[in-house]
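re: ur question from yesterday

yeah so i grabbed the chain u mentioned. its 378 aa long if i counted rite. heres the sequnce exactly as i have it in my notes:
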Amino acid sequence: MLVLRPHPSHGNGIKIISHTEQIPVTLSGMSSLSGKVQTVLGPVEPSKLGRTLTHEHLTMTFDSFYFPPSPCHEATSREPITMKNLFWIHQNPYSHRENLQLNQEVEAIKEELLYFKAQGGGALVENTTTGLSRSLHTLKWLAEQTGVHIIAGAGFYVDATHSAETRAMSVEQLTDVLINEVLHGADGTCIKCGVIGEIGCSWPLTDSERKVLQATAHAQAQLGCPVIIHPGRSPCAPFQIIRILQEAGADISKTVMSHLDRSIFNKKELLEFAQLGCYLEYDLFGTEILNYQFSPDIDMPDDNKRIRRVRFLVDEGYEDRILMAHDIHTKHRLMKYGGHGYSHILTNIVPKMLLRGITERVLDKILIENPKQWLTFK
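ran it thru and got these structure tokens back, copy pasting raw so excuse formatting
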């Protein structure tokens, strides 16, 4: 295997690689990406994005995170999604196998994206990475069919989805994979990713995840690209991740910390974290459940609490660093199944935020200006 460290250069390269067949990496195409946002249909001017959701999924599978239900609900977990079992699925989303197959709903998602656009939406970041059945061809088709700008994510999710091959890679090899997915195309296609992430982290962080974080920092330092992180489920996790990224040379000002809704609840700790300079993402809008299966100790906030937390950060002077999304990754959250869908923030949350004193100017910053600044290559 030939793996060379990237060096700054100009030119144009379009070779396609797999993880097992690396090509020498050069920073080809960087001059054309500077000042642009890279969508699955190619680079666009940042001003073209409009209202942007920064953390969504459009096609993925989540089988690796199936939670076996209690014996009395085993039959329900195997049934099709119906009105009769929908409330149970809402409360136990990871215990229903069909619910974890978002990739089966391409037509329904196309209709949702058309509705999202009609409600004033312009773009979304699709955070599906290696290990979650990422489909670049599907994302390109959806972008072509709907006119919504879709930015695809490069990289790796949490350790539970890492292959033995991924775990065996060095930081340098992982860096080359990330750079190639941005500059040349991912998964054997010529469709290029426009952001690194969501990079998955567990709690405690594993050795493989630490290497991926270091590779993410190295790739970002050379590409000038946006990065988005999925933190482990602990208030300490976001702090640890930022420290690792900083030590490896990342640009924290172009890095998003996702899922703060379920990670940092204490206001003092949140302000301490905000001072580190990354983007602060509240991306579970629409998720209102009694028992959070991944971490039962966490009381998942409802949307009113999310709105209050965003207002708190605005009042503390962080309106330039806030992002919002839904992180839709299961079927039951689609409008087809009675869910809130990708337009929930625009149609329901924004009006409530206005009632709670968050101005249109600030909302434009959160939904338009901040995503634009983050997604633009240096």
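noticed a couple things. The longest strand covers residues 51-56. also Confidence is low (pLDDT under 50) at residues 1-24.
anyway ttyl
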